[in-house]
Specification:
Elements: E1 22-23, E2 35-36, H1 65-73, H2 75-86, H3 93-106, H4 111-125, H5 131-140, H6 142-155, H7 163-179
Antiparallel strand pairs: 1-2
Transmembrane segments: 97-116
Keywords: Membrane, Transmembrane, Transmembrane helix
Protein name: Protein PLANT CADMIUM RESISTANCE 2
């Protein structure tokens, strides 16, 4: 029916619009596959983040007694500050703290909300742990977990009191501008 070595036109697979040239050089008379040059230049898989330990332990409250006291008496403040930094300013400290308080009042268990932020923070910074451990830690010892998260962010260079936008502004200004006094114009002018 066909000459030996001749390939019928319908034996080629349909063209796929990928933007890569297709080579049919290794297709035999009965083959239905094509190799593309793209397979030789496949993108590398993303490398997994290096998992690191938390900078402080779960019960290392002695290093920051002030925050531990605030967290013990009013955990919504600590949670709000942590959530603002972890969310990179998309939610404010006040809004996160108010939502945490509302959940505590309605459900009676703010840990249901705060454990998700621990997981999110852990993923952002490549910290050791998993989702199950995050929930257990928050359910069993909410104040210790919030204090540890606060200390971790503080150790990473965040000024927790000024929030995300204050930290961004402070870093963009740089240390040199903070040292110099602002210039003052002499006399009055219009």
């Amino acid at each position: 029916m066909y000459e030996q070595g001749a390939v019928p036109a319908k034996a080629y697979p349909p063209a796929v619009d990928t933007g890569f040239p297709v080579s049919y050089s290794n297709i035999g008379p009965y083959s239905t596959t094509a190799t593309t040059e793209a397979s030789h230049y496949a993108p590398a898989l993303p490398q997994p983040k290096h998992i690191v330990e938390w900078s402080t332990g779960l019960c290392d409250c002695a290093s920051d007694c002030g925050n531990c006291c605030i967290t013990c008496w009013c955990p919504c403040v600590t949670f709000g500050r942590v959530a603002e930094i972890v969310d990179r300013g998309s939610t404010s400290c006040g809004a996160s703290g108010a939502l945490y308080t509302l959940i505590c009042c309605v459900v009676g268990c703010g840990c249901l909300y705060s454990c998700f932020y621990r997981s999110k923070m852990r993923q952002q910074y490549g910290l050791k742990g998993d989702a199950c451990t995050d929930c257990l830690i928050h359910c069993c010892c909410e104040t210790c977990a919030l204090s540890q998260e606060y200390r971790e962010l503080k150790e990473r260079g965040f000024d927790m009191i000024i929030g995300w936008h204050g930290n961004v502004e402070q870093r963009s200004r740089g240390v040199a501008m903070a040292v110099t006094a602002p210039s003052v114009e002499q006399g009055m002018s219009r």
